Amino acid sequence: MKEFFIKLNNFFRNLLLSDVDKPYDRPLPYHRKFGSVERQKNDLKQKRAQEQREQSRGF
């Protein structure tokens, strides 16, 4: 009986979660927006430059 439930569980797991165990060669799809380290550094530099322009402008 236990073996039957294990097989049933595996069947539904494989059916519903087919892409869970699939290996990815690149970052996961929901992490792609973060990009590379160079892009992150470039974004930070641009953000700091924009903040400095806004602060130097005054009120």
Helix content: 55-70%
Rg is 24 Å
* pLDDT < 50 runs, ≥5 residues: none
The count of β-strands is 0
The average pLDDT is 80
- β-strand percent reads under 5%
Instruction: Give me the strand/helix succession.
Output: HH
Distance from first to last alpha carbon: 76 Å
What class do helices, strands and sheet pairing give?
mainly alpha
Shape: rod-shaped
What is the count of helical runs? 2
What would you note in describing this structure?
This protein has 2 helices and no strands. The model has no long low-confidence stretch (mean pLDDT 80). It has 59 residues and is mostly helical. Residues 35-59 have a biased composition (Basic and acidic residues). Residues 31-59 are annotated as: Disordered.
Summarize the structure.
This protein has 59 residues and is an all-alpha fold. It contains 2 helices and no strands. Helix content is 61%, strand content 0%.
Topology:
Layout: H1 2-16, H2 37-57
Biased composition (Basic and acidic residues): 35-59
Region (Disordered): 31-59
Keywords:
mainly alpha; 2 helices; 0% strand
